[in-house]
Amino acid sequence: MKLWLGWLLAGGMVVGLGCGDGRPERVPVKGTVWVDGKPLAGDFAGSIRLLPVAGGRPAVGMVDANGTFVLGNYDANDGCPPGEYRVEVTATLLKMPNLVRYWIPPRYASAETSGLTVTITDGKEPLKIETQWLPEEEKWRGKFLPQGKF
């Protein structure tokens, strides 16, 4: 009887260890990047990063040629915890080692200058990340520029 009880307790401990991944609760998050009122589309390499306002691990994703993305926090596409986030988004095309074409204004590449924030709740509604070229940034649109010189 004691041996049977020991095996039962040991089995329960093993099953208990397998429950949850010890990481914060995450909800699925997907969305689209827009530029000047239209979904971003083109031949670029894009990424998006959500930085938690309260601190912690950022959520990241790749932006595809249709402007869509799926976020991951620990693994690809595993979502992110609900909360408030500052947003960084890039969409560029490299030509040679040091020339870059910006598909969206470079200011969106930093949470400090993007001005973009989102609130993640239940993950049921796709995000719409809206970007816009300002008149003073038009000189960079569609041109290859030395990387970091904008």
Which outline best applies?
Answer: elongated
Largest sheet: 6 strands, antiparallel
Kindly state the percentage of residues in helix. Answer: 10-25%
Q: Tell me the distance between the termini.
A: 76 Å
Our count of helices gives 2
The ordered string of helix (H) and strand (E) elements is HEEEEEEEHEEE
Strand residues, percent: 35-45%
Class computed from helices, strands and strand pairing: mainly beta
- Unreliable stretches, pLDDT < 50, 5 or more residues? 3-19
Described by its quaternary structure, the protein is single chain
Q: Provide mean pLDDT, rounded.
A: 87
Radius of gyration: 21 Å
Quantity of strands, as a count: 10
Lay out the secondary structure.
Layout: H1 2-17, E1 30-35, E2 38-39, E3 45-52, E4 59-63, E5 68-70, E6 83-95, E7 99-102, H2 111-114, E8 117-120, E9 127-131, E10 144-146
